[in-house]
Amino acid sequence: MHRFANPARFLRIARVLTLPLTLLGLVLTAAGLWIGLFDSPPDYQQGESVRIMYVHVPAAWLGSGGYLGLAVASAVALVWRHPLAEIAARAIAPVGAAFTAICLISGSLWGKPTWGTYWVWDARLTSMLVLLFLYLGYLALSSAEAERGGGKAASILAIVGVINLPIIKYSVEWWNTLHQGSSIKLSATGASSSIAPEMLMPLLLSVAGFSLLFGAIVLMRMRAALAEQAVAARSRRIAAAYT
Amino acid sequence: MNTNTIKPGMKPKHQRLVLLGLALAAMAGALALGISALGTSATYFYAPSDVFAHAPAPGEAIRLGGLVQKGSVQRLPDGLTLAFRVTDNARDVPVRYTGIVPDLFREGQGVITEGHFDAQGTFIATSVLAKHDEKYMPPEVAGSLHKVQGKVTS
Questions:
Q1: Number of H helices and number of E strands within chain A?
Q2: How many CB atoms are located within 10 Å of the residue A169 CB?
Q3: 3-class secondary-structure state, position A1
Q4: Is residue B153 part of a domain?
Q5: Residue B25 and residue B5 share a domain
Q6: Which of B44, B47, B142 is the closest to A178 by Cβ?
Q7: Helix/strand/coil for A185
Q8: B26 shares its domain with B83
Q9: In the beta sheet, which residues pair with residue A43?
Q10: Co-location of B36 and B105 in the same domain
Q11: Do A183 and B128 touch (CB under 8 A)?
Q12: Residue A93's closest CA among A138, A60, A133?
């Protein structure tokens, strides 16, 4: 754990990783979206609106996966007082919130032609909206705490909010919902999918691309936050030297 | 706090870790209790079998979901009203709806209707939504698996 607690070591690794992650992420996203939008078949029921899936599904997974990352980073910050953990949590939150918003908006645009409505208050849609509110609550609380210096409330909120993740995942199994069940299932025996292979391939490409971009943006934000801290420390030292 | 799990000699780091573990366990317990207490009240719609098990009062607003029974869709002489049956393959309920249905509405398709039962036991729907399933495939594949059901045309 403490091998990575060193911000200087982290910065060396992050500096090397940022560019390749960004480039590979852009290439995979472009390939996935190109094939998904122009070179894959329409669906037998939804027609062309199935193509929204190639944005909606990666956004949904990263919105919830990002929240798990936010909660783990907050737990590490609370328990081990790891200097990078809080920076990581603050770096993840707005990115995860953006993906959650993309998921909600794209899903709503898909819902109108498919279901006949932009929005319903079923368990899946509602729990996903709650996830967006959790992100916004974390962002507001952590920026208020940063202004005052210190505080644990934002980290605690992030950890408590984890309870929403199983609710999102299993909402379509626990209750009758308008949202359909999972098409891709992971189990001990392997993964199964009810998506045709020529649609699954671009979907997985865009999931991989979106994920790498998520990682790259978080690294950039963490590097920027560390640079800001260094600048602030230096100006304090200079100010101290001249008084 | 339980003195068996948090000992005075523990490092603060380990105390915090134990606290975090206890908090997570408490959250999991709260979630399990909450889910079991919610039961079906967080459900978005009732299936025909649920309606037969707990009959709603005539006029009570509910949502009824299921499949449009094959061969049941009729357009009434006024040209606007559809009569069909919603089934969960165990029980089925007659439904009447005046208005425009989504493109995906057809026999054998999942639908969710909003409305109430009249005194005769017919469900008077005020809205009809199409439910999509988790299968995604191109039309050629679907055509061979799955004969496209007679889409309702006026």
A1: 7, 2
A2: 14
A3: coil
A4: no
A5: yes
A6: B44
A7: strand
A8: no
A9: A47
A10: no
A11: no
A12: A138
How many A×B Cβ pairs under 8 Å? 115
Which residue segments constitute the domains of chain A, with CATH numbers given?
A: 7-241 (1.20.120)
State if pTM tops 0.90.
no
Q: What are phi and psi of A16, to 5 degrees?
A: -70, -40
Burial of residue B121 (number of CB atoms within 10 Å: 0-12, 13-18, 19+): exposed
Domain tally, chain B: 2
Chain A closest CA to B90's CA: distance in Å? 17
CB atoms near residue A35 (< 10 Å): 18
Contacts of A201 (CB under 8 A, 6+ apart): A35, A40
Assigned token pair, B13:
């780091």
- Find the radius of gyration of the CA atoms of chain A: 20
CB B123 within 8 A of CB B116: yes
* Of B24, B42, B112, Cβ closest to residue A178: B112
Token pair listed for A222: 């963490």
User: pLDDT of A55-87, one tens digit each?
Assistant: 999 999 999 999 999 999 999 999 988 889 999
Residue with tokens 């057809």: B106
Both B55 and B124 in one domain: the answer is: yes
| Residue B78 structure tokens | 């006024």
Report the C-alpha gap between A41 and A48 in whole angstroms. 8
Residues B134, B79, single domain; the answer is yes
Which residue is listed with tokens 């509110």? A133
Instruction: Indicate whether B152 belongs to any domain.
Output: no
d(CA B15, CA B6): 6
- B84: which strand partners? B95
- What CATH number should be reported for the domain holding residue B73? 2.40.50.140
Contact (CB<8Å) B44/A123: yes
The pLDDT of residue B145 is 52
Smallest Cβ–Cβ distance between A174 and the set B24, B35, B137 belongs to B35
How does A181-209 read in b/e, with b if 16+ C-beta sit within 10 Å?
eebbeeeeeeeebbbbeebbbbbbbbbbb
Give residue B94's domain range.
48-145
Contact assessment for residue B94 and residue B83, using Cβ atoms and an 8 Å cutoff: yes
Same domain for B31 and B71: no
Asked if B36 and B59 sit in the same domain, the reply is no
B93 shares a domain with B116 = yes
| pLDDT tens per residue across span B102-151 | 888 888 889 999 999 998 889 999 999 998 888 888 887 766 554 444 44
* Tens of pLDDT, residues A135-175: 999 999 999 998 887 779 999 999 999 999 999 999 998 88
